[in-house]
Amino acid sequence: MIKLKKVIPVTISVALFGAVLAGCSMGSGVQGEQTAAPTVEKKMKLSYLNQNFDKTVKDSYAIKYVENKFNVDIEQLPRSKDNYKDELLLKVASGEIPDVWVDLGFPEYEKLVNQGAVAEIPQEMIEKNAPHYWAWLKKHLGDDPLKLYKRDGKNYSMPIIQTLGPDRTVVGLRKDWLDQVGITKNPETLEEFEDALRKFRNNDPDKNGKKDTYGWTGQAVGVKDIFSPVFGAFGVFPGTFTDKDGKIVRGEIEPGAKQALTLLNKWYKEELLDPEFVLNKGQNVDDKIISSKAGIVTASWYQFITKAAFFDGKYYDKLRVNVPNASWVLTAGPKGPEGQQGTVQLNPIASSGGQFGKHMEKDKEKMAKYLQVADATAFDAETFENIVYGEKGKTYKKGEKGDYIYLPPYDKEEEQIKFGIGQQYTFLGKSFNDYDFQTPYMTLNELMSLRKASEHIGKGKYDIMQPIAIPAYNENIDALDQLTLKTYIDIITGQRPVSDFDKYVEEWKKAGGSKVMAEAQKKFEENFKK
């Protein structure tokens, strides 16, 4: 991290990835010839913000491997999980600008670019120093993958794309609970979901003799979080801009949202929904699912199957510690009156990607080194294996079917943490997830069919305008979202009648919503209708 006003540019020679650096100095050779004497490349210090810093160790195997491979010193710094955006913006405002950061939203990206806090990253630098990454971008974003990131013709970002995003989110129902309460057909319609909710609440699905379970749990941290699949059953997606016959619409003010709120109010009155959804944060939801307090939840598909099949697996592996026969049915969500179905999904361009601090413009050699490390840690098999799996024969082996298998005691996460290996080690490029490349590392062969059966169930829509600068949106969205959250919660919990929805829509428009929609439509036509 560098104080902007105290930057002293240093010129150093840097080898390209995979090459050997040799400097030349003049000296006496045979018969008076001048010969080249080898010089030693000066080490650079690369610093990374890591949201899983608590699971890293100093002098870890992963860090030492990268340091030795690239002749660098690596510093991993803690990154807040809850206040990352605000903390980063505060640091930048005070002149303490990191070398590199990732995952800011586009509004913050716009702000920092306009403030002159972000370094330009020329396309040719990416192509030259991160060729595998560049090929991955073109594969998923087309021949001009930097198009949506450029400002005034200059690129300031290393795009991070979430290729899982458009169908990642699903609804999970406890299959063992369905069996326990006598439901033999997997719920599909809103009516069938309601029947399951009622029996999950009233028929003691965990067989502990208490009425202490609920049908559906969730949270209300953002507009998109509030029981999104119920809104999807009526064809609307709150918190997102979507295209409806060439017109940009916002799901929270569409007529279908009123129908969804009516049903959610009914379910709340019957105590079918977790009453604490208003207060829940992500960890609260996790705890309730893992402790069998609710039988339906919205989450990423890979959380409902074992970690060995892909990634995470918390709603399966952790739940089965206490309930060995626990299992899940995955669905895109309940089908509504017109057969509509789905939930708010994730735009594959989910964030503004990665950026370099402005001072890095004067240290292009160091910027190149960051890009080289990123390319290798995300796309080079040997580097990836050493970071995630460690030392072959000691921490892992390759099975007969080519599977990568941790050896005891490193099959336990706490031992991996002690040794210093795992997905938690961030070298920027760890955000560049090429799941085709990572397949043999993430999924055991015997579980490949389970992964394939789970990974494309999700349906719905995502915010197509997320990467587009809409000034009116940035100015008004916080107030509009707070208005929406309060209104939705009040209607669901019965503090306000459902009939107040129409008043809310008018209030939303007057509070800046009309201006937002007009500008969003204009930007939509400029960027997507050419």
Keyword list:
alpha+beta; signal; Bact_solute-bd_prot1; single chain; 530 residues; 18 helices; Extracellular solute-binding protein
Commentary on this structure:
The chain has 530 residues and is an alpha+beta fold. The protein is built from 18 helices and 20 strands. It has helices spanning 61-70, 84-93, 106-115, 123-129, 131-141, 175-180, 190-202, 228-232, 255-269, 282-290, 314-322, 364-379, 381-388, 413-419, 435-442, 448-454, 471-492, 501-528; strands spanning 2-3, 26-28, 34-36, 44-50, 72-78, 96-97, 100-102, 150-151, 154-155, 169-174, 214-216, 241-244, 247-250, 294-300, 328-331, 343-344, 354-356, 396-398, 404-406, 460-461. The strands form 9 sheets. The chain has a 4-stranded mixed β-sheet with strand order 11-14-10-15. A two-stranded antiparallel sheet has the order 1-6. Strand 2 and strand 3 (34-36) form a beta hairpin. The longest helix is centred in the C-terminal third of the chain and has 28 residues, at 501-528. The chain is globular. The model is unreliable at 2-35 (pLDDT under 50). Residues 1-22 form the signal peptide. This is Extracellular solute-binding protein. Keywords: Signal.
